Every structure is written in structure tokens, then in C-alpha cells.
Amino acid sequence: MQISSTALLERSAGLCDCLDALTAEKRRTTPFSTYRLQFNGNFRFADARRLLPYLEKLGISHCYSSPILKARAGSPHGYDIIDHNQLNPEIGTLEEFQQLAHELHARGMGLVLDTVPNHMGVGTGDNPWWQDVLQNGRTSAYADFFDIDWEPIKPELHSKVLIPILGNTYGEELEAGHFKVLLDDDSRLMVRYFETRLPIDPQTVPLIFGPTKEFRRRNGTNASSVLVEFDALLTAMGRLPVNSVTDPADIRRRQTELPRLLDEFARLVRESSEVRVHIEEALRELNGAPGDCPSFDALHELLERQAYRFAFWRVSGEEINYRRFFDINDLVGLRMENPRVFAATHKLMRTLLAEGLISGLRVDHPDGLLDPLQYFMRMQRLYAASRCLGAEASLAPAADGIELDVHAAFAQQESRDLQAPLYLLVEKILEPGEHQPKHWPTDGTVGYDFMNLLNGIFIDRRNERLFTTLYQRVVELGVKVEKLIYESKKLVMRRALASEVNVLTQILDEISNRDRRARDYTRGVLREAIRETIACFPVYRTYIDEQGHVSETDRSYIEQAIDCAKRQNGTPAPEVFDFLRSILLLQGSETDTTIYGYRRQLYFTLKFQQLTGPVMAKGLEDTACYVYNRFISVNEVGGTPAAFGVSISEFHRGNKERGESNPDSMLCSSTHDAKRSEDVRARLNVLSEMPRMWASHVMKWRRVNHKHKITLADGRTVPDNNEEYLLYQTLVGAWPLRIEGDLQWKEFVRRIQQYMEKAMHEAKVNLSWINPNPEYVAGMNAFIEKILAPVDGRKANLFWDSLQKLLPQVMYFGCINSLAQTVLKLTCPGVPDFYQGEELWSFSLVDPDNRRPVDFELRERAADELRTRAVSEGPAQVCHDLLRNFGDGRIKLWVTMRGLNFRRERSRLFRVGRYIPLEAEHGKAEHLVAFAREHAGDAVIVAVPRLSLTLMKGREEAPLGSVWNDTALSLPPEAIGRRLRNVLTGEIIQPGHTLLCREIFAGFPVALLALD
Questions:
Q1: How far is 650 from 814, CA to CA, in rounded Å?
Q2: Distance of alpha carbon 568 from alpha carbon 813, whole angstroms
Q3: What range defines the domain where residue 323 resides?
Q4: Cα 648 to the chain's mean position, in Å?
Q5: Does any domain span residue 523?
Q6: Looking at the predicted structure, is the pLDDT value of residue 444 above 50?
Q7: Which of 646, 672, 716, 852 is deepest in the core (most CB within 10 A)?
């Protein structure tokens, strides 16, 4: 819907009316369910369009798309964007995207798009902005688009960008002839290093041909007119300002003259064979000859004059001088706080929003932004401008490309408690007890907090001590997980993110030198204080903004970190932490509140905040979660290895808070970033109910498999005890319900090998991505292959036989857990999200395993069959059949489909309905999770079992009938005396003031009871 008129362009009041209209529209179009689709070259817009009839029948309201902007060639995920103003040609054209969006709208559906504002991909040489920076350095029009430190500590890197891509040291790579200067297809000079291509600064091109007098000496009076013209062009290039100048006049002159000179160079190359031969002759001499070291002197001089500096890849952690996405060198941080960057990267986005093709946005990694709140506000204003004023900026746009009228209208609306008109979700990881800032103009998170809350109620907390004891026996040492997380964060700062710490240290050193009480702190002391404080930080980051506003929450987290760092650290200057606290809290000096230089102090605080998140992510998620393997179901994004279950009361409290503060927040149970799928975790949680049986099996497996371990030349045994224990849990969690044929079996073995290879690298214990060890990986692969061979030599494989005896029970109750968590996700406050393909059983592991192609045809056929049978045979008979054949996964599809369609029918009930926890009485109360949703006299009662293996005493049958004894559920007033219909089975129940659980679960293991 285009809400636009001449009046809106002319009057601020009209814009305010438009904002009100957009807010009203948002209430009608906010998703009530989403389905995540992973676009890449193997799944395109056209494929998604063909899928829409299935998703509509499934009950989905919105597709939830991975990034669709132009990414590097062959990108499997789309997060390495190289051009924000083009769609990714590998997944379809603009016309195909419009067709997808229009068909979604025709079906009453919408699209939520994943956006990536924090970084861009640069590794393949096809990012035009980055290539311009490499060619022109500080004179580039995009020099301030990327978060580059142009004046780092190392003098040799001043006004240069470190390019740490070399497989060996620079000198060895140079003299091996691995660098070549050549002409590209556009007749431009460039440097090739294997597959990498980098531009040559035009001002340095004359170096390739030597001084003008040398050119004239060699050609004399016989030089043709075209060579004379070429000589004059080289002279003009050499007179360009150098790439390190900062004077605005010099920069303008270079930017003005450069395009003409480059075009002239390309023209001469294309039109004159004489010029081309002359260039090729010069390049042959320049590129040197391996074995002749002096022959590379000229090439070295040329490379040294570029705006970049080649380096061995191992130095990146310590010396790289641009902010990255975590520690990935070819994902460079953007300065999105720069309004020019926002304007340049959101032109296409404005068009898509203006045309109504997008219903909402997910912001990837907002903690990487310098000021997340600023970005969220700009996105809301961009959306308003696009819908009220159109795709092109009109009237008087501000630096960020958004009309000044829109900024003014928002300022007017703030006094009226304006609701954000765009549905906006943020990929924010919340630590226990942490809440998303209330003043953010967003609708909630993408649901990691819910995922861990949901998973936790299916873990038997009573057995935590037994699992801790078993783990200590297996790894043969006592491990304190809090200490491990602390040390893992410090490890990350010493290795992968050392350069980022160095940047902060340099800024803090400048500040301290201006304070007479702090100037004696050495850089080493300041660096250690920064490391210790970040290692102790209790959350991913604080949100002090560019106006210097420090909330009480931010103050509390900084105080906690400083106090913890003081306790942990034995520095000879403990007062340095007090100094750091004063800087982070923008308090100034006791002697002079301005002595630090407020803007520099604020800049340090903002940059500090940008680093704490990556350190937490790399230290906790990508290190500790692969090291502390006591119970890997909790080692998840947004979770912590220290956790072991969640109480029912905690679960209810979290749901009530979400319903009151962010009722449209996303509810996920699997994501593209998850370390294990929801079904793997649901199965692993069964182990928490059988600690002694699990311990017995593990100890037996260690004995029978010991002979398959491999001893390396350095004396290490592969796998070590911790890796072996991780492997056993992984096998139990990921084991397929059915394996048909040798090919599928080999595929499973390879998947496990690939997972363990990634896990070992992330753990950084026996090897890492920085220090690979192919022999260790080969040893692990051999161990996996041997223990998973059904026959060990001529004898039965004792491990295989023992595993097959344990698996059926774990598999069965894992499926019960999965059905229960599916029902809860469908009915808790929030917007339930379904990861592609996981409406059937899916036992996938961390990416790339969870990004394998999905057999949608299988799912469509199964859904059509279930709908047909429900009409002809009735839901109760369908459920009876599904229980007998739970292994094919259709039972999960049935629960998902019935629940989603019911949610769509009662969308108001689930969107704004009260969340009412229900208590069970007598008998098996601890095995029941139940609540009601109520609105305007309508209500639904949700009831699912938990810890079902214990409830059923291990009997592999659905928790039906008398197993519940006299356990009864108290009903809300709206349901007392009213007939209830089980949405899943069609059964009718007539309760009194309470409802017996043996009636609730008489025909199915989970229940969704609606007022009939």
C-alpha cells in the first residue's frame, strides 16, 4: 500500500498522519508465524515461489529470508555482501523477487528480510568500494566507509591497509614469483596473488616504466606519437597527489583527475598494439625471475608504494588495522554511524520498502555497530520516508539520505509516544537476567533467549551433580566453567582479536598521557586492564550512545566488570581499573573533568563496546561451548555450558515478561546459527533423565574403543578424552532414525567427521584455525570410521551393539520432547519461527550441516496426505496412525500444521492474549507444563509433558491414560464448565473446575485445547 500524496510532501502534519497510518497498518500485517528460507545458488527466488502453496497450507504467514543482496560469488549464506544496491544474481533477478513478493501478498502473506549493516565481504576482489580504497587509500571516496585505522601503532602501516593473505612471509612469496603485475580484462593494471587481484595506484604506475629520461633514452627520436602520448600520460599520473594525503584540496584534485587518466590509459592499451607491447615488456622485467633476488627490487618498490601492505596470514590477529566481523579477515566492518554510509548502503532497501515488497527486517549482529540505537532509528525513518514519500529521496535530504521533513515528523511524534512503524527484529543475544533496552524502536529479538528457555525445561535439573561427576571422571580433571569462559575470552584477545585490543590500548594511552594521575601507566598495564575488564564483562555489550547517555543498566554492567577484574588481576597498579572505569562511564578526572578530552573519551567507550561482543561470542560460543562438554544440549547460541536446565516457574516468568514487553518478538528453536537442531537437543535432553545408565554406557564405550585411538609422533592420543565424550553425545543426538543403504551411511559418517573437525578447531585445544594439524584431523577421522563400522574385523563391534541398545529409548522420548517444544513454541507469546525443513525430524548439526538442501517435495506430499486423511478419516484416526509410525516424522508435521492453522484462525488471541500459567495438582505435577492464553472471552489451554522417560519409567509408548494417576490441571475461569476441543486430535473434553491429565493425554502425547 503506497500512502503518498502531494499534501504529504508539503506538510509536516501530513507526514505525521502518514506515520499514524503506517503504525495502524503494522498492527494488521505483523507476522504471526515465519518460515526461514536459506537462499543461495541452489535455492532461488523461483524455488521459494513454487514453495508458497505448501507454506500457506502449513499455516505460515511470512517467509523469513536470508540476505538477498549481492554477495561474493558462490556464497552459501549471503552474509558476505559486496554490493548493497544490487540483488544477488545467483538467487534471482529483481523481477523474480517482485514476483515472489507479489504472490506472497496475493496469498495474504509477507516477507521478513535479513539485513547485514555491520560488515561487507571483500575477499574476492569484486567489492567496488573496497577496491577503490585499496587503489586510492585515504584519497578514496570510500576511505571513511570502512572502519580502518589509518594511523595504527606500527609506523609502516600508516595510511595503509594490511592485507594478511600470504601463505608464507612476504619476502619468500615475493622472491618465489607469486606476485604478478598484469593487465586485467578492462585494460587496467593490477596485482595478482594466486586467485586474489588488487588494484594498482595510478600515481605509482610510472614506477613500472622507470623515469621519463630512461624511456626517452631507449626510444630516442624514433618514438612514435602514440608512445609519446603514453609517456605524457605517465607523467600526468605521476603528478597526482599521493594516496596518503589528507588535505581536502589534494583529495578533490586526485578524485577529479583520476577517472580521465584511467580511461585514457585503458584507451591507449585497447587501441595501440605498440603501447600494449611496451607495457608487456616492462611487466616482464618488473615481475622478476625466481632465483634472481635483485630482479624483484622494482616490484617490491612498487608494492611498497601502494595503499595496502601484504602480510603473512598469521599476523592478522595482532596487526590487522581494520575492524572485522569477529576474526574473519575478508568481512570488513562498516562505519554505519557515518550518515553517508547509511545513505549509500540503503538505496535499494528504500526502493524495496517503498514498493511494499518487504514486511519487516531482521538486523544481523547489531552489537557490532558503534551505535545500534542510531541505526534502528534511521531504519524506522527510512521506512517512513519510503512509504510516505517514495523510493527516491525528495525535498531536502539529510546526510543519511532521509528527508529532513521525516526527521522533523518523528521528532513531533516522539512526544506522542510514537510506535515504530516498521516491524524490526534484532539478532541480540541476552544473557540470563538481561533485557533488551526498552527505548529501542524494535519489536524484539530473533529468539535465542526463548530457544534456551524452552530447551531448559526438558532437562532434569536434579541430575546436574551426577553429570558433573561423570564429566570430571571422563576428562580426568576438575573444570570450572566460569573460569574456562574467562580464560577463553582472554585467549581470543591474545590471538584472534589482539589488534582490536591494541587499538583500544593506543587510544587509552593517549587519554592517560593527558592526566597527571594516569600518565605513568604503561601501555602494557593499560592493555592488561582492558583485557581483564572485557574478560569479566557479564553481557555482550553496553549501549552508551554517541550523545554520551549512560543508563543505570550500562553503569551496573561496567561496575560488575571492573570489580571482577580487580579481584582476578594481580597487576602492580590496581588503581588503573578505577581509571578505566572513569573513562568508560564518561566521568572525567577528579582534578579536571575535561582533561581526558571528552570526545576522545567517548570514542574510546564506543569502540570498547564494539569489542566486548565479539570477544564474548568468540570466547563463549566459539571456544568454551566446544571445550566444556559436560552436557552439550546447553552449549548453544545465547546459552552457556554452565547451565543445566530451567525450572517451570522460570519458563513461565520469561513468557509473561515477553508478552508484556515484546509480544511480537520471534520464537525460534532452530536457526542457521544453531550448533544443533531442536531435534538433536530434544533427544540429548533425554540423557539428563538417565545419568547412571548413560554413565555406564560411556565408560563401557571408552574401554571397547580404546584400541582404536591413534598415537601421534608427538605423543598425543587422538581423540583426547574430552573430544571422545563430545563425539559420543553427538552420535546419540544426530543418529538418523532410518538409514537406507550404504550411501546414506557413508554420508552420515562423513557428516560426523566434518562436525568433529570443526569442533576441534573451534575448541583451540589440540589444533585451531590458526594452527591446523592435518595429522590430528586424520586420526580423528580414522577413529570415527572404525568405531562406526558395524563389524570390527571378523567380530561384532561391541560399541555398535551397545549403542543400538541405548538409542531406541533415547530416540523415542526425544521425539516426545520435540513434539512438546513445538506446541510450546506455537502458543507462547511471540512469533513462532520454523527453520527450513524442520517440520519433519531433522537431526542436523552446526553449519554447514544445517544448510544442506531440503527435500520440500517430500514435505509437500506428506502434508497433502495428512490433510486428505483428516477429512476422510478424522483427526483422531490420523493421530492414532502417526503414533504407530512416529519415526517418519509426519507426526511433527501434523502438530506443526494443525497448530499453525489454529493460530492463524485465532491470531488475536495469540498476539495480545494474556499468558496465564496453570498449576497441576497431585501425582505427576513436575512432569506437566501448562498455561492458558485468554482474550475477550476466548481461551486456549496448552499442556505438554516434560521428563517423559521418567514419567513413563522408560516404557516406549505415548504418555497416555493411567500413567498420570490423579494428576489434575486447574482451569482458568473462562474454561470452567466449557467444552474443550483438542485441536490436534479433534477429541472433545467436558471438564469441571479441574481437568484430569489422563483425559488430556488420552489419545495423544501433547494437547492444544480450545473452547469449543
A1: 22
A2: 44
A3: 128-328
A4: 29
A5: yes
A6: yes
A7: 646
